[in-house]
Write a structure and sequence with these properties.
Layout lengths: L5 E5 L3 H12 L3 E5 L3 H8 L10 H11 L2 E4 L10 E4 L15 H10 L8 E4 L7 H12 L4 E4 L9 H6 L4 E4 L3 H10 L1 H4 L5 E4 L1 H32 L3 H9 L20 H14 L7 H24 L8 E5 L14 H11 L3 E5 L4 H7 L4 E2 L3 H5 L4 E4 L4 H4 L3 H5 L6 E4 L6 H6 L3 E4 L5
Parallel strand pairs: 1-2, 1-4, 2-3, 4-5, 5-6, 7-8, 9-10, 9-12, 10-11, 12-13, 13-14
Helix pairs in contact: 1-3, 9-10, 9-11, 9-12, 11-12, 12-13
Bound molecules: uridine-5'-diphosphate-glucuronic acid (UGA).
Pfam families: UDPG_MGDP_dh, UDPG_MGDP_dh_C, UDPG_MGDP_dh_N
Family: Belongs to the UDP-glucose/GDP-mannose dehydrogenase family.
GO molecular function, one term: UDP-glucose 6-dehydrogenase activity
C-alpha cells in the first residue's frame, strides 16, 4: 500500500540525488526537483553529476524504470504525498552560522503546490529550532500540509549503503500521523530490523549535529594525542590501536592525520557553536572551538614537517601531493585538508603538483592556478618530497622501489597514517608520519 505514495525530493545534490534514487529503488514514484538545469538534464539521462560508488548504476537503473524523474519545474511536486527537502545549508559567508536561505526558499516554493494531507520532510542539516519555525510558517501558508524532520547520516563513499541499510532512522515529528506516514515510506528498511527513533522536532535536529560533533571530537582527540606523541617520542598509531580495543572507546574514527574536512563536519560544528550561542548555551559547546583548532593545526603541522625536511624557503622545491579530495572514494574537495595544504605550499612558492584519482577536475575548478598531473607516477617525477594526503587505495598499492626511480629525493610524508612505513623504509625512503616519532 505504501508503494502507492508518490515522493518528491527538493534539491538534487549529494543528499537529494542519493535519496531520490534509493527511494525509487524501494518502488516509489519519485520526482526530483532542482533549480540547476544542467544537473537536472544529467540526472534525467541517468548520469550522476558527481562520483559516488554504486550510485551511478542505481540512478541509471531507476531512471530507466520510469519511476524516477527530474525537473526544474517546482509545480511537479503537486502530485506527491511526501516532499523530502534535501537542499544545502552551507556555512554563511559572514560568520560561523549555517545559511538557511535555500531551505527556507525550498519550503516556500513548494507550499502553493502541497495537496491535502501531504507531509514535508526536512533532511538537510539545520540549526535546532529551524523545523519548528518552518512548521509554524507552513501552518499559515499551507495549512493542509504538515512538516517533519528526518536527519540523514550518510557518508560519502557509502551513500547508497547508508541510505538503504542505515544504522538507525530518526524522525522528528509533531504528531502520530506524521510518524505513521514516515513508517510507511521506510517500511522495507524498518523490516530489516533498523532501529526507529521517534523524537520531537528539536531533538531530531540536534541528533544530527550531535553525531557529527562527536565524530569530529573523536578525530581531533586522536590528532591531539598525535601532537603529544610527537612531543614525547610516542607512536599515535599504536596508541589508537591500544585504546580502541576498549569497546567503550572503539577503534573507528581514530585515524590520526591531517584531520577532517568535507561539506559536513567542519561547517556543522561551527553552526552548532553559533546556534548554542544564540540559545544562551555558548559555554556548553566551547570545546568545539578547540576541536576546530586542533583540526586546522594538523594541516599546519604537515607544512612544518615539509619545511623541516626541505628548507624554510620552499621556492626551489617540487612537492608532489597525492590526494586532493577530503577523503577517498569521493570527488568532493570542499574544505579538503589535502587541497588546503597544497594551496598553502603553492602560496609559499613551492612547485606543487597534485594528483587525485577522482578529484582533479573539481579541484582545478576551485583552484585553476594549481598544477595537476594525470597519474601518480607523472605527479612524483622529479619531486623533492612526496606528500600523501588522501588515503586512496591506489596510493597504498604504489611500489616504493619503482617510485624511488622517479623522484629527486626519497622523502615521503604520510599525512593519513595509511602507508606501510617499513615497506617504504626498506626501499630507502626517509618516511615521516604525523604522530609517529622515528
Ligand atoms: C560525515 C558523517 O560521517 C556522516 O555520518 C554524516 O551523515 C555526513 O558527515 C553528513 O553530515 O552529511 P562524510 O562527510 O562523508 O560524513 O565524511 P566522514 O567519513 O565522516 O569523514 C570526514 C572527514 O574526517 C574526512 O576528511 C576524513 O578523512 C576524516 N577522518 C575520518 C579522519 O581524519 N580520521 C578518521 O579516523 C576518520
Amino acid at each position: 500500500m505504501s508503494m502507492n505514495l508518490t515522493l518528491s525530493v527538493i534539491g538534487c545534490g549529494y543528499l537529494g540525488a542519493t535519496h531520490a534514487a534509493c527511494m525509487s529503488s524501494l518502488g516509489f514514484k519519485v520526482v526530483g526537483v532542482d533549480t540547476d538545469p544542467e544537473k537536472v538534464a544529467m540526472l534525467s539521462r541517468g548520469e550522476l553529476p558527481f562520483y559516488e560508488p554504486g550510485l551511478d548504476t542505481l540512478l541509471a537503473q531507476e531512471v530507466k524504470t520510469g519511476r524516477l524523474t527530474f525537473t526544474t519545474d517546482f509545480s511537479a511536486v503537486s502530485d506527491a504525498d511526501i516532499h523530502f527537502v534535501c537542499v544545502g545549508t552551507p556555512q554563511s559567508k559572514d560568520g560561523l552560522a549555517a545559511d538557511l536561505s535555500y531551505v527556507k526558499a525550498a519550503v516556500q516554493t513548494i507550499a502553493p503546490f502541497l495537496k491535502e494531507g501531504s507531509l514535508v520532510v526536512g533532511k538537510s542539516t539545520v540549526p535546532v529550532g529551524t523545523a519548528q519555525s518552518l512548521r509554524a510558517e507552513l501552518t499559515k501558508t499551507a495549512p493542509q500540509a504538515d512538516l517533519a524532520w528526518n536527519p540523514e547520516f550518510l557518508r560519502e563513499g557509502f551513500a547508497v549503503e547508508d541510505t538503504l541499510t542505515p544504522n538507525r532512522l530518526v524522525v522528528g515529528v509533531a504528531n502520530d500521523r506524521a510518524e505513521e506516514i514516515l513508517k510507511q515510506v521506510y517500511e522495507p528498511i524498518i523490516a530489516l530490523g533498523t532501529p526507529w527513533i521517534r523524537a520531537d522536532l528539536p531533538t531530531a535536529e540536534l541528533v544530527k549535529v550531535a553525531a557529527n560533533s562527536f565524530l569530529a571530537t573523536k578525530i581531533s582527540f586522536i590528532n591531539a594525542m598525535a601532537e603529544v606523541c610527537e612531543a614525547a617520542g610516542g607512536d599515535v598509531t599504536v596508541l589508537a590501536k591500544a585504546i580502541g580495543y576498549d569497546p567503550r572507546i572503539g577503534s573507528r574514527f581514530l585515524q590520526a592525520g591531517i584531520g577532517f574536512g568535507g561539506g559536513c563536519l567542519p561547517k556543522d560544528i561551527r553552526a552548532f557553536m553559533a546556534r548554542a550561542q544564540e540559545l544562551g548555551a555558548k559555554q556548553a559547546l566551547e570545546f568545539l572551538r578547540e576541536i576546530d583548532a586542533i583540526n586546522l593545526r594538523a594541516r599546519q603541522r604537515v607544512i612544518d614537517v615539509v619545511r623541516n625536511d626541505l628548507s624554510e624557503d620552499l621556492t626551489q622545491y617540487k612537492i608532489a601531493v597525492l590526494g586532493a579530495t577530503f577523503k577517498p572514494d569521493s570527488d568532493d574537495v570542499r574544505d579538503s585538508p589535502a587541497l588546503d595544504i597544497a594551496v598553502q605550499l603553492h602560496a609559499a612558492g613551492a612547485n606543487v603538483v597534485i594528483h587525485d584519482p577522482k578529484g582533479i577536475e573539481p579541484a582545478r575548478r576551485r583552484f585553476p592556478n594549481l598544477n595537476f598531473a594525470d597519474s601518480a607516477t607523472e605527479c612524483v617525477k622529479g619531486a623533492d618530497l612526496i606528500l600523501h594526503l588522501t588515503e586512496w587505495k591506489e596510493y597504498r598499492d604504489l611500489d616504493p622501489s619503482l617510485i624511488a626511480q622517479l623522484v629527486k629525493n626519497k622523502i615521503i610524508i604520510d599525512g593519513r597514517n595509511a602507508l606501510d612505513r617499513e615497506l617504504w623504509r626498506s626501499a630507502g625512503w626517509k618516511f615521516h608520519a604525523l604522530g609517529r616519532t622515528d
